[in-house]
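User: Teach me something about this protein's shape.
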Amino acid sequence: LFDLDRFALHSFNELVKFARESYEVYDFHAVYRAIYNYCVVDLSNFYFDIIKDRLYCDDEAARSAAQTTLYRILNGLTLILTPILAFTSEEIWASMPHDKEVFSDSVLLNEIPTYEAGLVLPEAELTRWNRLVSLRDAVNKALENNRSQGGVKKNQDAELSIFVKKEEDAKMLESVDLATLFIVSKVTILQGDGEGELMEGAAIPATISVKESQAPKCPRCWNHHDEISGEGLCPRCARVVSFLS
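Assistant: First, the predicted structure itself:
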């Protein structure tokens, strides 16, 4: 699995823990609110948004990692929902493939998933992800502000320059595939001051500069890239297509 997949499973594991504890005291409303917030914030606004590109355009190994993560979340989430939405969960369960060790005839014959210590991220890794998520929120705000002023129409048309004060922040950010995380075509990390929108409220205070990419656009993934093949594809898409042909 990718780092992003492991973070997604960590977040789901925390939902499992909270749901089981709430069911033990019959606090169904707390479970409902936790599931709702998880689906909107952790899944739709974050994980789903980022992995769409991987599912549509990447190679089989990368797609399988996302699909494995999605299946584990779907399986567990359906079981957590069952005491509240029994008939809906039963419909979902009937449409899913299942492992041999579960009761496939009915979701009601299975147990709610348990909290898995193996899915818990180390504290340092979790702190790193929380900082990246905070910076992503700041980037989305900068992109939206740029769009409202007549700038880039789509995030994938954007190139970002992110200025940070601390050297350790710059090194950490340079080790991350930020273009994928932010759903833009290119991200450049710079240390020091620069022109752009100052985002002091982010866990990593940064100045974010947004501009429209002038690089050619790949017609398959819609990302801009400086290196376009003779078929008009970016390097990743050219590699993936070569295996398909």
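Now, about its shape. DSSP finds eight helices and four strands in the chain. The mean pLDDT is 95. If you'd like, I can walk through any region in more detail.
User: That's plenty for now, thanks!
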